[in-house]
């Protein structure tokens, strides 16, 4: 019986570490900071911003590193979100190959 318990414990421990994450994830709530609007041409703008997190919950299986998320700059393509500094924003962050983005 002890041998069976040891065997099951080894399988459980190795299966957790054997999982290969395709992307790291976190759920968040925060506020928009450092909003920058870039004019690309007549009537065409792009926006970038950072997030000051008030809540940050890493995935238990594939956790996103908090320091990577706090340093990330996010793009609001064509300023479609109509954000301003201080606006509350929430959702899921995903990181793949060192690039963090908001999953939509």
How would you explain this protein's 3D organization?
The protein is α+β, with helices and mostly antiparallel strands and about 100 residues long. The chain has one domain (about 25-104): OB fold (Dihydrolipoamide Acetyltransferase, E2P) (Beta Barrel), CATH 2.40.50. It has helices at about 1-20, 65-70; strands at about 25-40, 45-60, 75, 90-95, 100-104. Strands 3-2-1-4-5 form a 5-stranded antiparallel β-sheet.
Task: Give me some keywords for this one.
104 residues; alpha+beta; OB fold (Dihydrolipoamide Acetyltransferase, E2P); 5-stranded antiparallel beta sheet; 2 helices; 5 strands; 22% helix
Short summary of the structure?
The protein is α+β, with helices and mostly antiparallel strands.
CATH fold topology: OB fold (Dihydrolipoamide Acetyltransferase, E2P)
Q: Class by helix and strand content?
A: alpha+beta
Integer count of domains = 1
According to CATH, what is the class? Mainly Beta
Low-confidence residue ranges: none
> Biggest sheet, strands in spatial order?
3-2-1-4-5
């Amino acid at each position: 019986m002890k041998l069976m318990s040891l065997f099951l414990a080894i399988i459980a421990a190795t299966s957790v570490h054997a999982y290969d994450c395709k992307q790291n994830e976190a759920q968040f709530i925060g506020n928009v900071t450092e909003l920058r609007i870039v004019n690309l041409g007549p009537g065409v703008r792009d926006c970038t911003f950072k997030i000051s997190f008030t809540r940050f919950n890493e995935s238990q299986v594939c956790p996103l590193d908090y320091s990577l998320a706090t340093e990330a700059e996010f793009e609001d393509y064509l300023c479609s979100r109509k954000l301003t500094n201080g606006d509350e924003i929430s959702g899921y962050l995903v990181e793949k190959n060192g690039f963090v983005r908001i999953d939509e």
